[in-house]
Design a protein that fits this description.
Blueprint (H helix, E strand, L loop, with lengths): L1 E6 H7 L8 H7 L7 E5 L6 H7 L17 E6 L12 H5 L2 E3 L9 E6 L5 H7 L1
Parallel strand pairs: 1-5
Antiparallel strand pairs: 1-2, 3-4, 3-5
């Protein structure tokens, strides 16, 4: 499964939103660094977080067990099943927020924004 990723801080810096339809097109045009935007492959049995780390990326995490939401990502395109045990509200699940430490994409191509712990509603969970 191929994952294209984008750092939430880039959205913040550029004034882009998770709801922008052309978010990843803009990212592709913006000449971003490898850590901000790029893609990797998730191998069978890997969580999204592990796959990112195995690709040399340093994504945020703390508990690695679905309890803290430091590793939260927003799914923009593709399917990443919600975990059964976690700290996210159903509203956040509906918005496509997932925890990268305990879940993994099930579609061949997935677009996700990582580092969404800086989204106000996720930040609340971190307190
Ligand atoms: Fe804590 Fe994923 S690292 S929920």
């Amino acid at each position: 499964h191929r994952v294209e990723y984008l750092d939430y801080e880039v959205l913040d810096d550029h004034g882009w939103s998770l709801d922008d339809d052309d978010l990843f097109e803009r990212a592709a045009d913006a000449d971003l660094s490898e850590s901000d935007h790029g893609e990797f492959v998730v191998e069978p049995g890997e969580s999204l977080l592990e796959a990112a780390e195995n690709s040399g990326l340093a994504w945020p995490f703390a508990c690695r067990g679905g309890a803290c939401s430091n590793c939260a990502v927003a799914v923009i395109d593709g399917e990443v099943p919600p975990p059964t045990s976690h700290v996210l509200s159903s509203e956040m699940i509906d918005r496509g927020i997932r925890l990268s430490c305990i879940t993994t994409p099930v579609t061949a191509d997935t677009k996700i924004v990582y580092n969404v712990k800086h989204l106000p509603e996720v930040e609340e969970l971190l307190l």
